[in-house]
Specification:
Elements lengths: L1 E2 L10 H13 L6 E6 L5 H8 L4 E6 L8 H14 L3 H4 L4 H12 L5 E5 L16 E5 L4 H10 L6 H21 L2 E4 L2 H10 L5 E3 L20 E5 L5 H18 L7 E5 L5 H6 L5 E5 L5 H6 L2 E4 L9 H8 L4 E3 L19 E2 L3 H13 L1 H18 L2 H13 L1
Parallel strand pairs: 1-2, 2-3, 4-5, 5-6, 6-7, 8-9, 8-11, 9-10, 11-12, 12-13
Helix pairs in contact: 1-15, 6-7, 9-13, 12-14
């Protein structure tokens, strides 16, 4: 298993959480060699803890932080144009990992190689597919994400991304066809990958929740408290948090002046920290446990305007029994309101829709109870790591 990010502890969520929770089930029946990179925040205790779950743990140093200067970025961008590998994939590349893998594959002993996130694909040589099964676990399409950011005016650099978009399409087409099997998290990504490579073996395995970490709350706190959870140094979450704190909350307070917002997540960016100047907004920074903040909230709001893939924050809020108001991007991969099932969450994409749907929940305790029960039932039925880990094991071995 190749994982550029160190997948432990699982409470880190995101890529790390998906990797570890799938690994945990798979490790019960198979010997795993995990190749990963150690960031500055990885402790010796973390390494020891992860070692207990795998047969062999190969830890390499993480690359130095990518420079943001024009002159340092230029070679990476030129490499993208000439060789087709995106800068965010190239800068994590470590020749020492490549040398270790080349030797390990040449010596045999492995049945399968998995790339836990698409950035790891750079290490897998196309010829290996003839020797072993190769699986890429795509957390979200780079092409679709870039395309959506341009469409919603949320791109950090629109000029650059317009140039990158056709390159990303070509890159993902090539990568999709390189592997024995492609695993995706949502039906939208499944459709995209099948478009890129009609003959590829594509399998949908969504994200999940550890139910013991996100127990369903026992009572509705009432009130007018909103919560948003996510890494607050990630521009996709920054955009959502600022939209929520600077636009949605003030409009909502015209009717509910006591409405509050808690932004829960590590490393809040300056734009997020500035929101705390509003006395109705609390920015927590990293917290020991997310679920207690979810349990205190009247509504979890997930107004993502960009970013593809299934959102952990949505799944975890539902698992905790918190009524959810979310955008199309926040609800990607979930069936919540199409009429074929009981209502599980409320959808809102515009400022006006968010204010209306949140207000609806503030005023209707019965609706909050309905969404709480239906959301928790959805997670218990379809999105536990135990079930998804078994599916991933079948994808890897079948």
């Amino acid at each position: 298993m190749l994982s550029a990010t160190f997948p432990y502890p699982a409470t880190k969520g995101g890529t790390q959480g998906r990797t570890f929770n799938l690994l945990k089930t798979f490790a019960q029946n198979h010997k795993i060699t995990l190749v990963t990179q150690r960031a500055d925040d990885v402790s010796e205790a973390d390494i020891e803890g992860l070692s207990e779950w795998v047969s062999e743990l190969k830890v390499f140093p993480s690359p130095a932080e990518a420079s943001r200067s024009v002159w340092d970025k230029l070679p990476r961008q030129l490499d993208f144009w000439l060789n087709g590998t995106p800068p965010n994939v190239r800068y994590r590349y470590d020749p020492a990992i490549q040398a270790w893998l080349d030797s390990a594959i040449a010596n045999g002993g492995f049945e399968t190689i998995t790339c836990e996130h698409s950035v790891n694909e750079i290490y897998v040589r196309p010829a290996w597919r003839e020797q072993v099964r190769t699986v890429i676990n795509v957390h979200s399409s780079l092409y679709r994400t870039c395309q959506n950011q341009l469409a919603t005016n949320t791109s950090e650099n629109a000029f650059r991304d317009r140039l990158y978009l056709p390159l990303l399409e070509k890159y993902e087409r090539r990568v999709t066809q390189k592997f024995s099997r492609v695993v995706v998290t949502t039906d939208e990504d499944e459709t995209q990958m099948r478009t890129f490579a009609p003959t590829a073996d594509v399998q949908l395995i969504p994200n999940g929740v550890a139910l013991e970490t996100f127990p369903c709350r026992t009572q509705d706190p009432g009130g007018h408290a909103l919560v948003f959870v996510g890494g607050l140094d990630y521009f996709i979450n920054i955009d959502a948090a600022v939209f929520l704190g600077a636009k949605i909350l003030p409009k909502l307070q015209e009717t509910y002046p006591d409405a509050t917002l808690t932004l829960v997540g590590s490393k809040p960016a300056p734009q997020v920290q500035a929101l705390a100047q509003n006395p109705s907004i609390t920015v927590t920074g990293r917290v020991p446990t997310i679920v207690e903040y979810l349990h205190k909230a009247t509504v979890a709001v997930i107004p993502m305007r960009t970013g593809f893939g299934m959102k952990f924050k949505t799944l975890e809020s539902m698992a905790a029994g918190v009524p959810v108001v979310a955008s199309d991007r926040g609800l990607e991969g979930l069936v919540v309101d199409d009429g074929s099932v009981s209502l599980r969450a409320l959808r809102a994409n515009t400022l006006e829709e968010n204010v209306a749907q949140i207000s609806r929940l503030f005023a209707d305790a019965q609706l909050r109870a309905q969404l709480s029960a239906a959301g928790r039932d959805l997670i218990e039925t379809h999105y536990t790591w135990e079930t998804l880990g078994q599916q991933y094991e079948q994808a890897i071995t079948g």
